[in-house]
Write a structure and sequence with these properties.
The structure is a homodimer. By secondary structure, chain A is of the alpha+beta class. Chain A has helices at residues 10-18, 43-55, 121-129, 135-138, 174-182, 229-238; strands at residues 33-42, 62-65, 89-93, 96-101, 112-118, 145-151, 161-170, 193-194, 220-226, 243-246, 252-257. Chain A folds into two domains: 5-119 and 238-261, PSTPO5379-like (3-Layer(aba) Sandwich); 121-230, PSTPO5379-like domain (PSTPO5379-like fold). At the A-B interface, α2 of A face α2 of B.
Chain lengths: 264, 264
């Protein structure tokens, strides 16, 4: 067994998860590879949700969509099974969390469609590679996330405001952070705003709507990126009969190298 | 009236088209703005086609998708009507071209979904801005297009090979051409291949499958980009009851500035 799960291959991590030997958060595992969020919807809602993602690519960057009834993400991880390879799942009925499980095989239906959504871990790695510090990692907490007053473009029953994540960046590095993350449109891409939280409807940085507050130091500017919590919030508002998501922080390790997601 | 249609606004061109006063090709009109290809499908095929586009973004870059039954592309051109604002349309029944018309209002159905697909005009403008010559423009012909042996990722009934367009580029500028077009993933983006046509199944550059052959000069390398003819070819193979497309070269002028499509 490898000393560090960060050195494992995606398949090695997925095997541990599939066997139930790893049920915790996936941050830092198989570090060069993209991790994916999950949304499972029934086929009748799949077109409108895919359309919502297409219209709101910054908060909803789609890495892969499974064929109806197939649990295999053929593009992102052909050897994976989305019913078993996330460490933890949440089941929502009519917008209410009813169960948290480690295997959704009993819930899987013939017309289910799985959406794998890109995650900020990929661009955080790119920032770290540039020696740009990530405060919530250094402080050992979840990234702070905020509801904004930015409207998503609606599609069918799906509509709502964009949720953003915030990372405090030294002012001299803010432009570099924008450049570096612009290379990765498949995982939220460039920031939506640098500084001035009020301008996007955030009144108090110390009171995030999701995740944990982090320290913003003298000489740092808060930088806001579109966040994958957006599609989840939008789906809950639409209150489908049933929707399955990953549990926060408990992602699928794909076979896609972070660096291969760069457009330049 | 403006001296040159290249200086007109998108809305001005669309008005002329809508009134039937302009029924020709749109190349060069409202030159700073993105032009869009069209595919209209009935709702029951829309999910699989959107999925096909999501899985094959280089040949099928989606700029906008209309809500079922709505002819208004709310993101790309909120003042436009896709039933009247393309100069010419083609109607295909079971994969066979049956009519060419200038107005599809009589054909429009309550559950029709319109897909606006990005077009190479946008990145050609970016190349021209870098003083990289575009041979088929200089020779006054259509861009040469070739079927390759590159498989698209299938989705539902949609599958087939990628079609590419070719532009001969001076060898010293080929890398620059790749860089410049990489900025525009929403309009086919980076080349799929530089040189060696045989490596993607093209046996004779002088015999394009679509469009016209162009001169490749000494010291030039053929550069291949994914082409918007791909989704059309794939749809014809699927032989839906009815599908409506724009006529080749007869595009919609959107309100999206080419330069705003750049990711960097």
């Amino acid at each position: 067994m490898k000393n560090h799960m960060s050195d494992m291959s995606p398949e090695e991590v997925r095997q541990l998860v599939r066997k139930g030997q790893m049920t915790g958060p996936t941050a830092g595992m198989a570090a060069s590879y993209a991790q994916a969020n999950l949304v499972v919807l029934q086929k009748d809602l799949a077109f409108d949700f895919l359309l919502f993602c297409q219209r709101n690519q910054k908060p909803c960057p789609v890495l892969d969509v499974t064929d109806a009834g197939s649990p295999v993400p053929a593009i992102a991880a052909p050897g994976a099974d989305i019913r078993t390879d996330f460490p933890k799942y949440r089941i929502y009925r009519h917008g209410v969390l009813t169960e948290e499980v480690t295997d959704i095989t009993p819930y899987w239906k013939d017309d289910d469609v799985g959406f794998l959504i890109g995650c900020s871990f990929s661009f955080e790695q790119a920032l770290i590679n540039q020696h740009i510090p990530i405060r919530h990692i250094d402080e050992g907490v979840n990234v702070p996330m905020y509801k904004t007053d930015i409207d998503c473009v609606p599609a069918g029953p799906f509509s709502g405001k964009m949720v953003v994540s915030m990372r405090p960046i030294p002012e001299r590095l803010a432009v570099r952070a924008a450049q570096v993350t612009s290379r990765f449109p498949a995982v939220h891409g460039a920031p939506v705003r640098i500084g001035n939280p009020q301008s996007i409807g955030i009144s108090d940085l110390h009171q995030p709507d999701f995740g944990d507050a982090v320290t913003v130091r003298e000489g740092e500017v808060p930088v806001f990126w579109a966040c994958g919590v957006t599609p989840q919030a939008v789906i809950m508002e639409a209150k489908p009969d049933i929707v399955i998501t990953h549990s926060p922080g408990h992602m699928l390790i794909t076979d896609i190298r972070n660096e291969s997601l760069a457009v330049l």
